[in-house]
Amino acid sequence: MTQSAAHPMAKFQRQVQSLIDTKAVKPTDSLWKIAFLFGDRWSHWKHELAEFDFTMQDPIADLLAVETWEEE
User: Fold this and answer.
1) Are 31 and 49 within 8 A, CB to CB?
2) How far apart (Å, rounded) are the C-alpha atoms in residues 22 and 36?
3) Is residue 72 part of a domain?
4) What is the DSSP code (8-state) at residue 5?
5) Long-range contact list for 47-51, CB < 8 A, 24+ apart?
6) Per the domain annotation, does 1 fall within a domain?
7) Cβ(69)–Cβ(52) under 8 Å?
8) Which DSSP string do the residues of 6-71 spell out, in sequence order?
9) Which domain holds residue 21?
10) pLDDT by residue (tens digit) across 31-64?
């Protein structure tokens, strides 16, 4: 049985989902709101999000709606 590693964005998605679960942010909040919660790591995630055509004004729900992360 081969086990594939989760894409880094899938792991990021789970972290963001946990922020929603703890009521730190809402799914309707813009992505920029999570910048404060990721601190020094935010510049990396902001770049990754931009690579997938997200803007900081997109709702967090859009990020969570992605089912498969594939790079071209």
Assistant:
1) yes
2) 15
3) no
4) P
5) 48/8, 48/9, 48/12
6) no
7) yes
8) PPHHHHHHHHHHHHHHTTSS-TTSBGGGGHHHHGGGHHHHHHHHHHTT--TTSBHHHHHT------
9) 8-64
10) 999 998 898 999 999 999 999 999 999 999 999 9
69 in any annotated domain? no
Answer yes or no: is 70 within a domain: no
Q: Can you tell me which residue has the tokens 């997200």?
A: 54
Residue in this structure with the two tokens 């880094």, named with its chain if needed: 8
Residue 46 and residue 31: Cα distance in Å, rounded? Answer: 9
**Sign of the dihedral through C-alpha 65, 47, 9, 67:** positive
d(CA 43, CA 23): 23
How many residues are recorded in the chain? 72
Quick: pLDDT tens for 4-28.
667 899 999 999 999 999 999 999 9
Question: Could you give the number of structural domains in the chain?
Answer: 1
